[in-house]
Structures are given as C-alpha cells and as structure tokens.
Amino acid sequence: MKDIDEIAAMGSLARVAPGSRGGDPAGAGARALLAAVTSEEPPAAPAGTRTRAYRRPLLGLAAAVVLAAGAVVGPSLLESGPGLPSSYAVTRSPDGAVTIYVRDFSDAAGLERRLRELGVPAIVDRVPYGKMCREPRGRHVLDIPKGLYSVPEGIPGEEWGWRMRIDTRLFRPGQTFVWTVSAHPSGEGGSTTTYLMEGPVAPCEPVPAPEPKVLKPEFQVATFEGGSLEGFRVDEKTVGEVLPELRRRGRKVLFAVISVPPGNPGGYGVQRVQDEPVGDHWTVWEAEENDEGVIRLLVSEERHDRNPVYGGPRDATFPE
Asked: Domains of the chain: which residue ranges?
C-alpha cells in the first residue's frame, strides 16, 4: 500500500455527503452528492450469519432529502376496484403533502397521471431490464428545498411495498420530479432513480445500461468473527478509547470521516480519508481492514443518536 499516494487518490474521490450535520444541508455541493451517502455498501455479514435479501425497489437519490412523516396509505387502497389500480395508490392531504404507496411499477404512465392530478409535476418512465434513459435529459436542480421529498420506507406487514412523501408546496415554477424505473428480470421489484430537474426534460430514450461491476471491497469489517479485531468492539466508543488498543497491536490506522444524511435514517458517505489523527472525543462507528492489515476507523466529530453504519445498534442488525 502506498500510504500517501493512496490517501491522495481517495481524496480525489472524496465526496461530502449532503445533509451532514457538520455542514450546510442546503448547500448546492452537499445536495448534489447525496448519492455518496446512499450508495455506500453495507458491511458484509460475519461468517455464519444469515441475511435476508429484499427486492423492494432501490432508490438512487441525486438530491438531498429528509425523512418526513407522511400519512399512512394502507394496503386496502391497493385493492383492485373501479378506476383504482392495484399497483399503486396516491393521496394528497390538505397541507399539500402527497403520499405515494407503490407495490410495483407496471403502470408507470398511470402513476405519472395520478401524480400530476394531485399537483406533482412528475415524469415517470419505466425501462426494460438492462436499459436506462439516455443522458443528459435536462438540467439538474442542486439547491433542492429541504423536505421536498422523503426517503422511501417500507410498509409494515407488506413484503413488496414502500411509501414516500412529496411536498407539492416546495416545487418552483418549471421544475419536474423525474422518476425512472428499471425493471428487474424476475418482474419483482427493480431499481428506481429520482432527480429534480428544471426547464425542458427530454423524453426517455432507452439505451443499454453499463454492465455492473462486481468488485471485491478494499476494506471489510474487522470486528466480526474471523476479522483481525474479533472480540474487540469499537462501535460507539470514542477515538481515545479505541486507539490505545490498536497501537498496542502495532496496527496502522486511517480515519474515514463520514457524513450522515439529515435525520440519520441509516447510511453514510465517506467525506475524506486521512492518516492525520482526529480528536480523541470523536466517535468511532466501526472498524474496517484491508488485506495489508491497515485499519480504517469510520468516525464523525458529532455523536449521532444512532449508529449510521447499521441504522441503529449493531447488535440489532447482527446479534452476537
């Protein structure tokens, strides 16, 4: 490992996650880079741990969002009936908040019409598996109003459904909520991408999507069974509590300063990686290691209300 060169290379890729409490959640740069938060790979399960794969639609947000409490759209609204689709339901509350409940995207055109009827300037496109809309389609909005739309959340008791909330009062003239849905080959779930654009938006022209690259992660969690720090828990301790043990073991340490989206819904982005020490009062959320035995601590200066790496206590995700 070329320590200084590698850190410099990481710096060129470092992205400040929007909504980080240490920065301005309304800043254009922060809002443009929320993908760095939502795209972070979750830690691999320790050996012997069984994990459940969900096929709810995945959302790749290219804008800053905050969690918002939307009205519950019950599964009963999705029952087939005269004029009522079974794949989605959309309602609007008196305060202008539109709540969307989606089971599948088989009727993307109908969902678009319904959103527009309720005051959401939306374009919803559905493309076949392996396709994407040709880019660029329009001009992306960077200064997205806080609370314009929320992180999707699962519906309790529903295997395939989720809901999200959009505040119609926060749209500015000429802005469009662009929602592109890529089908899954199994027909269950799929992936979606949402953007806020301004000005003309080109129609979706399906083109082949790049082949996904499966890469071995450079760093993996070090504190699970089989890791070099097995038995030494670092999560939610301070840097001052963790470093002495790592130094006693003669380990080289890097610090990955993370950013957390507003509301700390779970997930993070790596803002920068450095070998310069951070303050002893900083919080460690997890420790990772690479093949050369270098330890990378995921840290933040602010102590959040729950561990952003696991969306809560680590033991709730991976009981020991």
From this structure: 3-38+217-317, 58-69+77-208
